[in-house]
Amino acid sequence: xxxxxxxGKAIAARVRAEVASEVEQFTQRAGKPPGLxxxxxxxxxxxxVYVSGKQRASLEVGMVPFDRRLPADASFEQxxxxxxxxxxxxxxxxxxxxxxxxxxxxxxxLTEMIHPLKDxxxxxxxxxxxxxxxxxxxxxxxxxxxxxxxxxxxxxxxGAEAVVVGRSNLFGKPMAQLLLAENAxxxxxHSRTHDLREVCARADVLIAAVGRPRxxxxxxxxxxxxxxDVGMNRLxxxxxxxxxxxxxxxxxxxxxxxxSAITPVPGGVGPxxxxxLLRNTxxxxxxxxxxxx
Length: 293
Ligand code: NAP
Description:
By secondary structure, the protein is of the alpha/beta class. It has helices spanning about 10-30, 45-60, 75-90, 105-110, 125-135, 140-155, 170-180, 195-200, 235-240, 250-255, 270-290; strands at about 5, 35-40, 65-70, 95, 160-165, 185-190, 205-210, 225-230, 235, 245, 260. The model has no long low-confidence stretch (mean pLDDT about 95).
């Protein structure tokens, strides 16, 4: 078997085009475009690249970006005050705090300060709670992006065995909840799971978000399974050779020989995160203006 390669770039482009057209309609009806604010504390180069990507993408779909940067030694109170200003600013519909924040700051406590209606990352306790109760709310963008990719494959989730490797608040837990909401039978694995290989091999849908290069090998995968690789692991220049230097948690070459569909890294889950963040921002603006799309 040779797996279908799930083209995250193309699917993300389609989502972004849909968002752009809905932003145009929203702007006409509401009299102002949606605004997305990013808060970056410090000068971590990877975080700066992510933030610039989000700024650029929001501009491209017709939103107004707000770029707030604070020095690496900013106090908790300074960051909190910036978040409060953005919460109160009616031209801002979505607020996201780029994580991780410098070690002296309490990232979860700062995230919790974002107004739930503006929490486009879906990481505040209110939105996490709404998700776990199965009630409407903001969902984290990366798991939402994975749901879009799964929909594109046509895989039937109802009754399917879904295995999520990783239980982070950012990804693994909300991913499991979204699959459960679609009536999959969900197992969440983590570093203490006994016999990861055996559990993964039961999966009709296998999702890896671990941060360990090529952990998922061919014999972890049931023939015909759909495999989604969320991992983004940077190789050293020596390891990378002439590749992009980015590898997932799945041994792509081996697993593509047994799965029915698989995401590549790069070009799979990665492009979906920003696309779904934009959709979340549009929905936040619609809810705040009480205009449904
Ligand atoms: P994280 O917070 O470090 O969580 C990693 C999870 O993997 C933990 O639950 C950990 O278990 C589990 N784990 C670690 N080693 C394991 C092993 N040997 N066997 C089974 N489980 C193991 O990471 P994260 O934020 O969820 O991110 C995971 C990966 O996805 C990273 O590579 C990250 O870069 C990537 N990611 C990509 C995107 C995107 O936009 N494409 C978005 C988010 C994350 P314990 O809980 O027991 O420690």
